[in-house]
Amino acid sequence: MSYNYNSGRYVDAGICENMKSEYELPLAIATVPMQKWRLTYAPEKALKAGTMFAELNLPFVGGVCK
Fold first, then answer.
1. Domain hosting residue 50, numbered range
2. pTM for the whole thing?
3. Which of 18, 53, 55, 66 is 20 to 30 A from 32 (CA-CA)?
4. Residue 65 lies inside a defined structural domain of this protein
5. Is residue 16 part of a domain?
């Protein structure tokens, strides 16, 4: 079951083909892929990087707007 904010009702995701309009569709469906176990950092480096997975180490390189 998912909540439809447009209609204020709970909607069974399996009945989408029987709905009368697009306003009765669920708001969103989130999907998150599983993390693949690949290259990992040593514990000391993982603590500094904030992650043990090298492919998730994406340091912030932005700046402050002036």
1. 2-56
2. 0.41
3. 18
4. no
5. yes
Q: Which residues contact 5 (CB under 8 A, 6 or more apart)?
A: 27
CA angle 32, 6, 23 (to 5 degrees): 85
Q: What is the pLDDT along the chain (66 residues), one digit of tens a residue?
A: 666 666 667 666 565 556 566 666 667 777 877 878 888 999 999 999 999 999 888 877 776 665
Give kind and range of the element (H or E) at residue 11. strand 9-11
Separation CA 12–CA 26 (nearest Å): 9
